[in-house]
Amino acid sequence: MLAPFCRQDGGATVCISAARMAALRSASEITGLGYLPFGPLSLRISLFIPCLVELASPATTRAARTILERLGHEVVIDRRQTCCGQALYNAGFRRQARDLAIRFVEVFRGSDIVVAPGGSCVSMVTKHYAELDLEGSIRSDWESLRTRVFELAIFLVRQLDVTDIGARFPHRVVYHPSCHYLRDLGEREAPLALLNRVEGLELVSNALREDCCGFGGAFSAKYPALADAIADKRTRALCEDAPAYITGVDDSCLNHLNAALCRSGSSVRTLHIARILAGA
Q1: Which residues, 6 or more positions from 190, have their beta carbon under 8 angstroms from its beta carbon?
Q2: Tell me: the pLDDT tens digits for 132-144?
Q3: Model's pTM, two decimal places?
Q4: What is the pLDDT of residues 104-118, one digit of tens each?
Q5: Which residues contact 172 (CB under 8 A, 6 or more apart)?
Q6: Which H helix or E strand runs over 69?
Q7: How many other CB atoms sit within 10 Å of the CB of residue 267?
């Protein structure tokens, strides 16, 4: 029988030491953005697909899978998974959000690594599940699991120490940093590090880099006129440098911005960073 952190890779047995896995599960290592010496080790990665991505942007899921497999890792998609519960949590439905949190823990508690192409759901899982009164083994399993859940760009850059995916995308691109990504996950540079290594991509800046998109889950449903006005202002700023595409790590924001672009008659379109890295 293999040790807990070993697996067969071809004819060889490859392992992560128990000490290293313990380090991976250490919150201090995650918040300190420590690099993990996985090197060429093929990991078994569970892909978590946020509901909005599954419903509105399935190409993002395919792109995330392509990237991870291109890097030599095994990708597992558990069909029992469902939503992270962020929309319910934001709307004040704590009991229903807690039910989805329990479901998430039950599905992924045995996973080595969980990666999601969406920063807002990762922030929900790793940060806000703490506010949902999880108890007993569910609570202890979540506390262990939360340190193994990563947004895609953060996982590539901060955990695998990879910035060059071998992508080519010959277009002008501006990056929109979504608010959950900045405020909850505290990440600013990982997506930029990846975009800067894409062949042919011209990354342009804008004056209001940290303004929100206006989506905000339940916010855009409660206050559609205000949410649209925020998106209109944001897209005008993002388009000042005449990009061909606006990219980011959250399809929720990107779809909201894309609607604003369509309203204004702009030819600029949005595209998740995973699709750029995978070759769109």
Answers
A1: 153, 154, 156, 157, 158
A2: 999 999 999 999 9
A3: 0.83
A4: 999 999 999 999 999
A5: 202, 204, 241, 242, 243, 244, 245
A6: helix 58-70
A7: 7
